């Protein structure tokens, strides 16, 4: 995302009024803000979908007693059906199951992680066993705007 900037413009050279740079900066800021909110909302829905998929996989696995062949086949079929999409590898489907098992109640998870990307959740599942620790790192990442690499460093350093 770009950051709002002050645009230098001389009315005589640009043919625009003195207030034009302020208008441009304001409109650019609104576009940046709108894009950021759209990405955050889309990310939240994707994480919710992955959680829901994980729940369904867990439920069917416990009821039907199937093994890893189903996950492998599901992965292949999803990639055929959605060739432009990423995230349906057998490994990622197993992460979805782990994610759903770690957070049986999505409402508890939602408040701490609404804007965190899926890769952050995968990192937390890999590195932290305790739900309280995951919640703490989620809250810090949300409040501080940690990137994936910063969060990884924080976990490696302090966990």
TrEMBL record:
Annotated signal peptide: none
Listed InterPro entries: PD-DEXK-like_domain, YhcG_N
Residue stretches making up the YhcG N-terminal domain: 27-157
One Pfam family of this chain: DUF1016_N
Domain of life: Bacteria
Protein name: YhcG N-terminal domain-containing protein
Source species: Arthrobacter ulcerisalmonis
């Amino acid at each position: 995302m770009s950051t709002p900037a002050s645009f230098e413009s001389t009315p005589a050279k640009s043919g625009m009024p003195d207030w034009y740079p302020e208008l441009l900066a304001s409109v650019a800021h609104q576009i940046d803000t709108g894009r950021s909110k759209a990405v955050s909302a889309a990310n939240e829905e994707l994480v919710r979908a992955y959680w829901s998929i994980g729940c369904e996989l867990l439920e069917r696995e416990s009821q039907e007693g199937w093994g890893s062949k189903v996950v492998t086949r599901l992965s292949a079929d999803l990639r055929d059906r959605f060739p432009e999409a990423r995230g349906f590898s057998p490994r990622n489907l197993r992460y979805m199951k782990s994610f759903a098992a770690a957070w049986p109640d999505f409402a508890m998870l939602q408040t701490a992680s609404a804007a965190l990307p899926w890769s952050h959740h995968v990192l937390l599942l890999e590195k932290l066993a305790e739900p309280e620790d995951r919640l703490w790192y989620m809250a810090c990442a949300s409040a501080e705007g940690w990137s994936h690499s910063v969060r990884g460093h924080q976990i490696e350093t302090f966990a």
